[in-house]
Amino acid sequence: MRPGLQRMLAAARSGAIDVLVISHLYSLSRTTRHLTFLLNELTARGVRIVSAADPDLDTEATHGRFLMRVMSAVAETEHTGALAGKPQRHRKIRRDQLRRPTPSPSRPTHKEVS
Predict the structure, then answer these.
(1) Which residue has the higher pLDDT, 62 or 71?
(2) Among 21, 69, 15, which residue's Cα sits nearest to residue 45?
(3) What is the pLDDT of residues 41-70, one digit of tens each?
(4) Structural domain contains residue 15
(5) Is position 56 within any domain?
(6) Segments forming the whole domain that contains residue 15
């Protein structure tokens, strides 16, 4: 686990944090499972989580908690989809690099026509 996240969780467990402001949801967690753990852990300790990028993502409201979980699921899907497509993209790039361009038929120049 990331050291800063460990320090934040320790502070939340000791009661030193009331509100956690995050820049973006994906900066807190990149998987739905981990975000669910963090949301449960922090909200159980009375910590409110607010996203600076999207004020609707606020655990104080039920719809805010719901939106956080949905956004996390979408982010995880995009991330795993990007990872899944990576080998295919690398093979295509390599194949394109190995493919030699076909020579185009030479066209006569102005001097050759005269």
Answers:
(1) 62
(2) 15
(3) 998 899 999 989 888 888 888 888 888 778
(4) yes
(5) yes
(6) 3-86
Query: What CATH number should be reported for the domain holding residue 31?
Result: 3.40.50.1390
CA distance 12 to 45: 7
Residue whose C-alpha is closest to residue 80's, from 21, 9, 31, 7: 31
Q: Which residue shows structure tokens 């080998």?
A: 87
pLDDT band at 12 (very low <50, low <70, confident <90, very high): very high
Helix residue ranges per DSSP H, 14-61:
25-28, 32-44
Joined tokens for residue 93: 């790039």
Cβ of 22: how many Cβ atoms within 10 Å? 16
In a domain, 102, yes or no: no
82 within some domain: yes
